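Board notes (copied after class):
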Amino acid sequence: MTSILVRVDYIERVRAQWAERLPGVDTSPAEVGARVRRIAALLEAELADDLADGDLTRPELDLLTALRRSGRPLRAGEITTMTGSPGASITKRLDRLERAGLVERAVHERDKRGVLVALTAEGEEVVDELFPRQIEHERAALVDLSEAERAELGRLLAVVLRRLDPKDY
């Protein structure tokens, strides 16, 4: 008699445990929600290893990538909107990144009260090195899906994200 080994993922194990403890609770939404969180956490852990080399945190990289992809200096409020981080957190990150030589601040020419934040050349180099690594981690996670499956997964997740994210970017 041949036995077939069926691989069970973490979320299936968790759902089975909850079915024993709270059999009346429908845990089927965890098929998506818990898996999305678990995948995100595992990808974040991989990226954290890359960031440790440059003494950066994920929120700091998010700030740097927001500046890089905008292609122009940004106000702190714009960075807050783009990253979804509170203003006080952005200020602390900017202080640290400025000390590290990755960003610079300048007074806005027209509005002397406003401060614009820009990447330094070193900041651009850091983003240009780290962002492709992040993409490679994500590509490796999706390797078992066909191009069509990746596109469909992306489309379906976008539907859920649009429902949850109140901001119109």
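Comment from the instructor: The first strand starts at residue 74 and ends at 75. Residues 48 and 57 are 7 Å apart (CA to CA).
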